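Re: weekly structure request thread

Next one in the queue (612 aa):
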Amino acid sequence: MPTSSQHATGRRRGHRIAAIAAAAAVVLGVFATAQGAVASPAPPGPDLGPNVIVFTPDMPQSQIQAKVDAIAAQQVNDEMGTGRYALLFAPGTYGTPANPLRFQVGYYTEVAGLGASPDDVTINGSVDVYNRCFTDGSGCIALDNFWRSISNLHIAVAGGSGCQTNTEFWAVSQAAPMRRMDITGGGMSLMDYCTAGPQYASGGFLADSKVSATIVNGSQQQFYVRDSSIGGWSNAVWNQVFSGVQGAPAQSFPTPPYTTLASTPASREKPYLVQGAGGLSVVVPPATTGSSGTSWTSGSAGRTIPLSDFYVAKPDDSIARINAALAGGKNLLLTPGVYSIDRSIHVKRAGTVVLGLGLATLTAENGSTPLVVDDVPGVDVAGLTVDAGPVNSDVLVRVGTKHQRGQGGSTAADPISLQDVFLRVGGPHAGKATVGVQVDSDHVLLDDLWLWRADHGTGVGWTQNTSDTGLIVNGDDVTATGLFVEHFQKYNVIWNGENGRTVFFQNELPYDAPDQAAWQHDGTLGYAAYKVADTVKTHELWGAGSYIYTNVDPTLHASRAFEVPLTPGVRLHDLSTVSLNKAGTIDHVVNDTGNAVTPTHQGPETVTEYGG
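Done, posted below.
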């Protein structure tokens, strides 16, 4: 099977300069229609709506197969659509080695087990993401395989034919996390080398999982693996990062570009649904420091909250009703769908859990800030997509309030946490927002965030989907693990707080600045991707890549990708820059250090250590 590095010639479908050969055939199979697929029995407790499908092991496999195939057929090309689904598997075994259950995961589809452990739900077969083959015949890629997830399952890999035999494929890019998985019995590939051959991918995030095989990275430009156990790793391209991963390759950046930390400085696993004799509940794992390996083999389950303690929201619920429930002491479960948010969902109570199913999406209306979290400990927000609307929002997600150092409410022992939170400015529709996420609290954990100013879709253009900055961190002691921020028009990230840490950062600078005059400031060309404020004394960053592709004006320059104060407490490890498709120049990697990447020298250029 192919395992060699493959450098992308284009980052998104709309901006490839080399044609991809059309696939001879789409190997996704013939999909069953939704008609004839059996309706799943409702689990005990509240109604979760029509787009939460719960499968049980006593259901005929043919009916399960028909249902999952029907949803995949609907969602596999629906990149900017409004369909949202959660496919939940009750404890038990599905499929057999001789008759495996194999299906695809399309856009806006969450697949999850409902067991206390991943091994409580076994799928003999595979749950896959392949290259997306466009219906206009323009080719197949994985670069746009966003907005889907899989978690809390044991996949005993089986079945398939040809090069797909006995392999789990997860050929994804950003916003497609794999969490809390046990994958045994066959291979695992993060690149689809079967559907129209190997194609480019731009992931990715894997956490709290065991994979017995050597994982094929293949064409993945970058990938982050956290607190897991793996059988090995095949290769690197530009920025492969591991923290707390048993079986990870040794530190070797830049040749090959592996950044390997023995442990993760701070993290908290995402809350998850479980089904027991009393019905559904949500488990909220504890915050950890210095973690490695999987949480579910160590017995650290965390607290369990019955679903009766949640307000189960539907897309037609008013925000006033949701906020009243939160004020009354409820947690919040957002069922799959697109929610119009005309005023902030406001989380004020310590320990509140806000959990989205099926990538539930909050869309700003009239310039609102869809989600506001007060500066209180233990709040956990997970599994949400937040979209800007056509009227500019000052900020889309605000965490905490500004305060004097050491006087905030969030604590190191019980931090505010965000997991799998994805933002979009433009793409599905017109959108504007000055800032994506603003963190004013201290002691906040950011785990797998993709903040995206759209480069394709609806309402896309330099003066259309305007947005200055993806992330501003004003709080102290904030840790990001898996931070993806792309295409914002000024600094993509501004870090003002002390003692900040980021493990894995991926960025693309904006594609669409019309000329250099539109993209410069204070005598500096362009804007850095990652800016640490001049006043900051302590900050650390591991494994960071920034790429440039200025397709509107290929002559544009950015003076640097990373801009930080030169002070002993600010340390950066394993930085890389790349120029894509002969368009755009980054003059230096960090400050005035590091060589240029240019239209005639793609790179990567690297800096292994800076500062300190």
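Confidence is low (pLDDT under 50) at residues 1-43. The radius of gyration is 22 Å.
Next request, please.
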